[in-house]
Fold each of these.
Amino acid sequence: MDADFIQQARAYKNELIAHLFGRPETPDEDDQASLLRQIPQGSNIVGVGFGHKMTQGTQSKEEPVIRIYVKVKLPLAEIAPAFRIPPEINGIETDVIEVGTLEPFAPCGVSVSHQQGKPGTIGCLVRKTNGSSNADFILSCNHVLANSNRARMGDFIVQPAISDGGTQVVAQLSDFQPLNFTGGKNFMDAAIAQVFNAGTITPDIKNIGRLNPQPLAAQRGQSVIKNGRTTGFTQGIIRDPLVDMSIPYPGSGFALLEDHILIDNRAGGSFSLVGDSGSLVVESTSKRPVGLLAAGGTGFTLASPIAPILARFQVRIV
């Protein structure tokens, strides 16, 4: 994400919080957590953002707005004058968004989707290693979180997936590796989304538990496991750690995935099905991450190697 945009976003978010709750007594420009600490516990306001206004899932303005996330939208008469959100801050419009009550829920390995996308799976939680943020991020596929390049930064991420009845917005798209549909090489299908409230998503993976976060290189014959939205917990065997394959992405074209991991189901059948994309593939015994499930078909699954993904987004697994 552009550094100037991040700096602008932080400035406007700080200005909004200062307008409503006052400035911190000991401000620290490098401590992003200090922004949310100004919001009183129990407040109807649960978060702030900076991006484009959305109306019925479609961007309605070219100019960015300051977004305020609330548990519930209240009639103006029920809000004390001191806590009413102004229509603009320093010439930038505000946009109030209802997200409900955010609480800890199922761990990673469960259903998720982009606000306009098809269902996939939360792979794991990650955090930045470069000091740019101490927030939690969801790691999953580009075609899950970024809707195969069609998404915009700041788009909502919903859990469970919209097609699974989900209505709770839990994160916003932060970054994705663009997929090349014009014949170029694709070494990963991956994206991250920043979680709004710490604890909303827990780091354990359903049916697997807590990981050893140290990445492990894929090897032929390696035993691996995953938990996905559609097939749940499955066990597999890595048959080819360096496969190149052309994969069709509906509505986008073909992506040439290179140096990917091919996995067979150890017990027969499929290691994965549609909706399992984004699942974290881990070594069975050590629970070290090996890959991010990207695609599958009759009798095989492809996963993007995890180490290049973590390096690309400058993150570590929580």
Amino acid sequence: MAAVIEQPVLEHRSTRGGRWLRRNRTTFAVVIALVEAILLVAGGINRPLALVVAVAVIVGYLWLGRQLRPQVAHDVFWIAAVSQALVALVPLLLAVLTALAVVAIAVLAVVALVVLFSRR
């Protein structure tokens, strides 16, 4: 059997910094989204404005970003689009968590009433 030598494949015309950015772009997107989500929840950012910016960046990436030739520019645009997509999910997540909290409180209230009325 022949031994297989595994070495990372370098992308054509990529730089060391570009490869580093590509490896870490998900981490950057999540950190940016987390910071922006905290500001959004705390009221530091206007919610409708954040949603408009998120939609604009995502549409811009889908329209232009995938066609960018310098890989670094493509990766930066990708980071912006993914972080904005994650931030756009924050109001939806807050609504779902609020609904779950209301349901949990209602269930606890019904259980408390059943326990109170069953003692008689």
Amino acid sequence: MSIELTPDLESALADAARLQGTTPDLLAEAYLRERLDTLRRESSGPEPKNLADFLAGYVGVLGDGDDVGEANN
């Protein structure tokens, strides 16, 4: 894959790479990898803290009307 950059982006990438002691190619790859991993994590939602969080939306409790707080009519 190749990506065409505008001259200003190419210059900014080269400057940033020089400051970090790396190549523009490696810096661009690292940035894309980090950004795409962040997007993937954000789209998948927060990490579940426990089993109940993990299963939320998939499990529940069905009652027969005798549940606490339910009125019997």
